[in-house]
Amino acid sequence: MHSRWNQTWLKVAASQDNNDGWVWDDATWILCSSFIIFTMQTGFGMLESGCVSLKNEVNIMMKNVVDVVFGGITYWALGYGLSYGSGPGTNPFFGFGDWFVNANGKDIGPVFTTFLFQLSFATTATTIVSGGIGERCNFNAYCIFSLLNTFVYCIPAGWLWGKHGFLKNLGAIDIAGSGGVHLVGGTSAFVAAVIMGPRLGRWDIIGDPPMGSPTNACIGLFMLWWGWIAFTSGSSFGVSGRKWILAAQSACTTMVASFSGGIVAIFYSLYNTNGKLNILMLINGILGALVGITGGCALVSLRESVIIGAIGAFLANISAPLLIWMKVDDAVGATCVHGFGGLWGMLAVGLFARTDHLEGVSQHAGLFHGGGFYLLGVQGLCCVCFMLWSSIATLILIKIIDKFVHFRMTEIQELVGADYCEHNIFHSGVGVTRAVSVIKRHDKAVDLGLVPVGKNKGHMDFLEREYASKLKSEVEKYTNRSNFQRQSNRVHVFDTSAC
């Protein structure tokens, strides 16, 4: 009976295959990973909003929303084709074809599954930039940026993962995006922060501005942590054959690297902050470790992942003073975590990666496993290409947008806060009213009409219209009754004394 069941199952599984060897197990694994990766958008939003002042937290969340909707539509229309298109005109630098992704018949499963997974990567790359330029970016300009920034990501993604890509054909390895997602996004964040300039008064204070909500930032960390496991293990791109082994190894190296990164961040913080644990240092240390392990997660051992995670955490924190010295205001440390962490993750592959004998993911071993300097050289070339491309592309993109919509908020908008100016959300007790009061002393024309929009004006009007007269009548009755009682008491006291 058991043998017959196995034979039946094998026939069913075989019937699920298409010409590319796809089975429903692979699609299920990839789709579930994609769903989890999309939850990272919430994690990014919570983390970034927790790092900025309270008068800008909703604005940061809205940027994460538009990253998905605007970035998603352009990726569906053009981005996916530029990364993975294989039609006439495809060359080693970009794909061509597969515009407005669609499929029919048996192709629906493989095509749609692949598209959804790659889409989750594309939206993540854009989101990295939003935190770096937080609290000073015009929302309308950012919407345009989010719509077009897909192209900054999809071109190098094709170099690295597309069949046509020149880096892929050289033997470059990036399992889950240390370079293709994080280094590209981190470099873009750095360039955007340089162009935008610092927040008003940023260099007038010592140290970092206080976090708006450390609790939100920690919740964001946990959501990213959870999503990262799908980010790396899902990049095995299935579980059929021996892919499940790579998936299991990726998940475990990811977690172990984050452990060592967290430990390094804790001691780094205690040493640099007089024995107190700095929340942002811990968060960025863990994230730096996760970024570092992402590139080679399936090709390194658990012991090696400890080293990779520890160095990633150290780089994410040690680079923060460098940005301050350079007078670059990165609101959440996106450059430190994703830029330096992604750079280290790509080079770590060239040092620690083993040749993959399971699925042929890597044909070359790293320097420490007898592969010589070839893979390290290719990984270094990847880093140079990614940083040059994303720097130039981001610079051009922002400059073009700035010609039509001023990319930076006005001084008054920045002082009052993006939540009110962009979304009509007023936070009491965070200095918004004070800012308007000071500004109006110098410019009487300024009138932002600050209204606590959390109050229901309809309820207030209804109370005034329906109950005001009743309330007035009740007050008058109570007043008359009180007056009569006081007069009675006086008479009573007078009569007693007379007796």
Keywords:
499 residues; mainly alpha; Ammonium transporter fold; 2 domains; 19 helices; elongated
SSE inventory with pairings:
Elements: H1 2-16, H2 24-51, H3 57-84, H4 108-132, H5 139-148, H6 150-161, H7 166-170, H8 178-196, H9 214-233, H10 243-272, H11 279-294, H12 302-325, H13 334-352, H14 374-404, H15 411-416, H16 418-423, H17 432-442, H18 457-466, H19 468-498
Helix pairs in contact: 2-3, 2-4, 2-9, 3-4, 3-5, 3-6, 4-8, 5-14, 6-8, 6-14, 8-13, 8-14, 9-10, 9-11, 10-11, 10-12, 11-12, 11-13, 12-13, 13-14
- Tell me the helix content: 55-70%
Q: What is the succession of H and E elements?
A: HHHHHHHHHHHHHHHHHHH
What's the total number of strands? 0
Give the CATH H-level superfamily of the largest domain: Ammonium transporter AmtB like domains
**Shape field:** elongated
What number of domains?
A: 2
Largest sheet features = none
CATH class of the largest domain: Mainly Alpha
Mean pLDDT: 87
Unreliable stretches covering 5 or more consecutive residues: 1-19
Number of helices: 19
How far from one another are the termini? 114 Å
Tell me what portion of residues adopts beta-strand conformation: under 5%
Named at the architecture level, the CATH assignment of the largest domain is Orthogonal Bundle
Q: What is the alpha-carbon Rg in Å?
A: 29 Å
Helix/strand structural class:
mainly alpha
Give the CATH topology of the largest domain. Answer: Ammonium transporter fold
